[in-house]
């Protein structure tokens, strides 16, 4: 004999499933978590560009400050399309002087991630051709009184409009700024 179900006349059966409101709350929470995750991850190339630009600017300020403190002279920033290094002028004899890359954890040489970052250098309003991967040439001279060769260094993501600039003034100010796309 089957057991009879007894219900009170005003009672409803137990609810099965989720209400529309519960589903909407869960969907909103999932959307918020996904949005926060995408913000924290961001565009890897843009983040790398920002990081490399800030690193170069901070290194340039460090080298300037070091020269101001020590009073040494004859330093320069050498740029290539694949990276940068700070250089010092070595006196070999009375007639021979050569620029040599500093082997230093902060001052370089530093290579950019391959095929990601491209470098351009503007001196006196004109772009200067940079060597691909051979030796280092001095591009921006640093003086022991804080002065530097005025220049604009542009780093950009290869094959993209993402660009950031580092402006270097004669007085030794180093400023990083987002660049507007060329067009």
Protein architecture, described:
It is a single-pass membrane protein. It is a single chain. The chain is α+β, with helices and mostly antiparallel strands. The chain is built from two helices and ten strands. Strands 1, 2, 3, 4 and 7 form a five-stranded antiparallel beta sheet that branches. Strands 6-5-8-9-10 form a five-stranded antiparallel beta sheet, with helices on one face. It is elongated, with a radius of gyration of 29 Å. The mean pLDDT is 83.
What's the SSE blueprint?
Elements: H1 20-41, H2 44-70, E1 75-80, E2 83-91, E3 97-101, E4 110-111, E5 117-123, E6 126-128, E7 140-142, E8 151-157, E9 163-168, E10 174-178
Antiparallel strand pairs: 1-2, 1-7, 2-3, 2-4, 5-6, 5-8, 8-9, 9-10
Would you summarize the structure shown here?
The protein is elongated and about 110 Å long. The protein has helices at residues 20-41, 44-70, and strands at 75-80, 83-91, 97-101, 110-111, 117-123, 126-128, 140-142, 151-157, 163-168, 174-178.
Based on CA inertia axes, which overall geometry fits?
elongated
- Show unreliable segments: none
Q: Can you count the beta strands?
A: 10
- What share of residues are in beta strands? 25-35%
Name the helicity range.
Answer: 25-40%
Mean pLDDT across residues: 83
Count of runs of 4 or more consecutive helical residues: 2
Radius of gyration of CA atoms, rounded to a whole number:
29 Å
